[in-house]
Amino acid sequence: MIRLDTSEDGFEAGFASLLDMARDTTARVDGAVAEIIAQVRRSGDSALLELTARFDRWQPASAEALRVTPAEIDAALAECDPALIAALDHAATRIERFHRAQMPADVLLDDPAGLSLGMRWGAIDAVGIYVPGGKAAYPSSVLMNAIPARVAGVSRVAMCVPTPGGVLNPLVLAAARRAGVSEVWRIGGAQAIAALAWGTASIPPVDRVAGPGNAYVAEAKRQVFGRVGIDSIAGPSEVVVIADRWQDPARVAMDLLAQAEHDESAQSILITDSATLAGAVERAVQDALQTLPRAAIAGESWARNGAVIVARSLEEAAALSDRLAPEHLELLVEEPRALFARIRHAGAAFLGGFCPEALGDYIAGPNHVLPTGRTARFASGLSVFDFLKRTTWVDATQEGLAAIGPDAVLLAEAEGLGAHAQSIAMRLGR
Amino acid sequence: MIRLDTSEDGFEAGFASLLDMARDTTARVDGAVAEIIAQVRRSGDSALLELTARFDRWQPASAEALRVTPAEIDAALAECDPALIAALDHAATRIERFHRAQMPADVLLDDPAGLSLGMRWGAIDAVGIYVPGGKAAYPSSVLMNAIPARVAGVSRVAMCVPTPGGVLNPLVLAAARRAGVSEVWRIGGAQAIAALAWGTASIPPVDRVAGPGNAYVAEAKRQVFGRVGIDSIAGPSEVVVIADRWQDPARVAMDLLAQAEHDESAQSILITDSATLAGAVERAVQDALQTLPRAAIAGESWARNGAVIVARSLEEAAALSDRLAPEHLELLVEEPRALFARIRHAGAAFLGGFCPEALGDYIAGPNHVLPTGRTARFASGLSVFDFLKRTTWVDATQEGLAAIGPDAVLLAEAEGLGAHAQSIAMRLGR
């Protein structure tokens, strides 16, 4: 754990090393992934059967056995605690409402020269959602990835989830049903991404792939990029908590640990204008680690990547946070809206003492798939925009062409593109 | 040149081979590019001096000599034909107006449970624009890349342009001035992308890099992706022209050749419901190739990648176009708006007989940087959205937390994330 104080010498050097801290220890698997993709392109379904047996340790009888049937989803739903199903539905309803509010409007511009110009939004036809299996099989991720696609108007949402040993998480299937997923496939790893991007006899190809995954999945997304669209490749998760002297140290500590419990490479940073609070939070973290179920992971993350920064003021704290451009930002301060107005770079912000970040992971409404590793400087969370694309259009009358065509001809000639110039000039009657 | 007719046997096979045609013959340069990026990261400015001498064949005296001074831009402007400067200004004004109309609104949602949710748009701080030098130094590309950034509110736009032999295109500098570029650097290739992404002593790093380039530039963008954002990596350009029997074959032919003259790997496809027009356009292409200044390139592109498809109806033509998902789509038909309503996938559309695609390359207003190679299925043209990012936010009162917190606790517990659950539960007073 790193302690820094902006009023001490050496702060800049310490903060710079925090900014440069490489937490992503992903192994290079590009060769192995290229082979898997080539095998799926070459052998299609039979490659999927073989790779599933090898990596997920169960042997599907046929390609049809890779598909999770509606009856299996019904059975899974019947297995789930009704209170959990209700909670999932509550979350889904709120996530849908927020993402509907994101839907953009078309642009139409009738301009003085007599042309009509526009920009039309449309949904992608088919999307693949990857859902990690095993320990990280999170129903909340199914909602967060599939709902924006459905709200955007995507008609086909194909989901792939590995089932190590053949075992499926019933709540993941319940989430898929609730989110409007069209097809569920028991396929994991790079072979799932390859099947979604290139298609097989059983699985028609999609146009875009989204969702988190391990190093193989991330590398496979990199390699199919261009053939299909991909979402961003997520690194380890992180939170910055800006807290003032009025906060309860135990709550601040638990918010830091909620981030830290994701995995050992997660990062939790407290920035406060109160040295007293800083010390109290450090002690509260150690107290909480005595009882937390995932204390081993959270403690390791906190020890390795955690930081406590004492700043001269909340304004200075906000400026430091912008340099970190965190995935998640909590503003545990008396006037969170005023402080939020100073923030330029963050994936998602949580304002005030009754808004722990975990609320946003599950139920608040905004997406929990967010830019990590300082990429909030230029990137954004998953949204309906990831599942929409734009077509711009121009409609020119003869008068409109006469008004703007001659200058286009000049520019085309200056660039040495004669056919460009002539295609306009011959319609000007010259 | 490929001829197809949807009513003939073998059409599907022929069309499938058109869809799979690999026009991108880019050489693999990943090793060389990785070395260049490593050198720039290691040696900064001095690497730029050495690489510029090696690749651009001129020796900058110092890092300061890499910067194009305002006085040099003034001198370049004085050199340009005033009519061209006026045309550039006309184009810039129209491009600005269209991109301003794209600017999205923030989202604010006060929800029934008593929470406030929102999504706030903000500009990226600093952006790098790459402009190819040599034969492809296009002032129009400067406008199309820099104006959306400035309209989005990006405060620093750094432009890199190679100057082979030390030579600069004055009109490119005039376009940079008009578009509001903040800095111009005489640096090209992978070293320019590396300098923009990682920074040197002279060039502060940017957050996002945009703009076209050769194989080295494209590969460098791939390699710095993650460190900074990048725009899409453009492949060879293409147009689909849907024309009905009422069109002038000479105009249709010139529109096809305007695309073909870009380079040998460009592709022009005519789809028509009239076999008579198809034949007449083929002859008109050959006629025009007798006199076009870039006939060698356009003729090679047409011979290698061109296609003429006769369809049974315009509706069938639209469906075929959607399978091609072209970068540019011209609708040279009597009722272009009705046909456009049937189109789902295209980067940009040009409606009616007085709207040749070249108008959009220069002056119409929408961007000319568009998704190529069937990626319009999921990707969009350059726009203000490429230079904006979103921060979502949640503001919960104690009552709001009480309304939605308990279900979030259930879901967190189901996912085995105890600190997530406790961070909410301890605020519920449980």
From TrEMBL, chains A, B:
Residues binding NAD(+): Y130, Q191, N214
SUPFAM superfamilies recorded: ALDH-like (SSF53720)
Cofactor: Zn(2+)
Record key words, sorted: Amino-acid biosynthesis, Histidine biosynthesis, Metal-binding, NAD, Oxidoreductase, Zinc
Identification of the protein by name: Histidinol dehydrogenase
Coiled coil: none
Catalytically driven reaction(s): L-histidinol + 2 NAD(+) + H2O = L-histidine + 2 NADH + 3 H(+)
Alphabetical list of Gene3D superfamilies matching this protein: 1.20.5.1300, Nitrogenase molybdenum iron protein domain
Annotated source species: Roseomonas haemaphysalidis
Active site: E327 (proton acceptor), H328 (proton acceptor)
Entry's cofactor comment: Binds 1 zinc ion per subunit.
Organism superkingdom: Bacteria
InterPro entries: Ald_DH/histidinol_DH, Histidinol_DH_monofunct, Hstdl_DH
Binding site for Zn(2+): Q259, H262, D361, H420
Pathway recorded for this protein: Amino-acid biosynthesis; L-histidine biosynthesis; L-histidine from 5-phospho-alpha-D-ribose 1-diphosphate: step 9/9
